[in-house]
Design brief:
By secondary structure, the chain is mainly beta. The protein is about 0% helix and about 20% strand. The protein has no helices and three strands. The radius of gyration is 21 Å and the shape is rod-shaped. The protein starts with a strand and ends in a 36-residue tail after the last strand. About 5% of the residues are buried. Bound molecules: zinc ion (ZN). Zinc ion (ZN) binds next to loops.
């Protein structure tokens, strides 16, 4: 079940909503308004191409696990 993030058009506050079915009425928890925009950027982004790499940003040329050639003190 996906959680969507919305921004209320009435009070401009963001909120998240677990959507059980597409026919479900979405109302703002703050003001109860039914006008909102669906935010797509936060939730459904595949992380690999987004530039957020999990590898070390600099000096990771050796690729030797946790230890760099200069030593990290774990041995
Ligand atoms: Zn609202």
């Amino acid at each position: 079940m996906p959680i969507y993030e919305y921004v209320c058009d009435d009070c401009k506050k963001p909120f998240e909503k677990l959507v059980m079915s597409q026919s479900e009425k979405i109302t703002c928890p703050q003001c109860g308004g039914r006008h909102h925009k669906l935010q797509l950027s936060v939730i459904a982004s595949p992380s690999k191409s987004a530039g957020g790499s999990s590898s070390p940003a600099s000096g990771g040329a050796s690729g030797g696990g946790c230890c760099s050639p200069s030593g990290c003190g774990c041995h």
